Amino acid sequence: MSGKLNGKEYIRKLINIEYMSIGIPLPFFIWVYLESTAETLIPIIHQDYNTSVLILVIATSSLLLVWGYKNYNKRLSEAKEKEFLLEKLQLYQRGSTILFISYSISSMLISIGFFLTDFQIFAALFGIMIVLFSINNPNSRKVVNDLKLKDHEREIILNGLDLS
Predict the structure, then answer these.
(1) Is 68 helix (H, G, I), strand (E, B) or coil?
(2) pTM for the full model?
(3) Distance (Å, rounded) from C-alpha 17 to C-alpha 96?
């Protein structure tokens, strides 16, 4: 691998960040889900409090996601004002990283809520998080569209050219 950064390597870094963000909560969720379907998961919190835990997890996750999106949009706005492509890409990567970290933490909270209650709605919520991860999957077209790149900058990202 060369020491120079190019459009292809940049997109690969963004994808790695996304995969790590989902890769952290996913094994825990899978374990909880399998235990739940095998009916060997014993809820720690009494079922009378399932709704309370659900509301708490949804509220906390929603706040995290809103914060992540606001931060992402702020970095995106800052990036659009920059003159050089490398500066734009650095800000975009920071914003994307924060967004995916907020997804990861929210997914982990949902998994913990599922573990504590064995309330099946948490499985559906985790599915929604997977959809959010998929919708915001970083790719070259998304970066170009989000940053509104033109001409040569656009070609660098789309064709994986060196950042010079």
Answers:
(1) helix
(2) 0.89
(3) 8
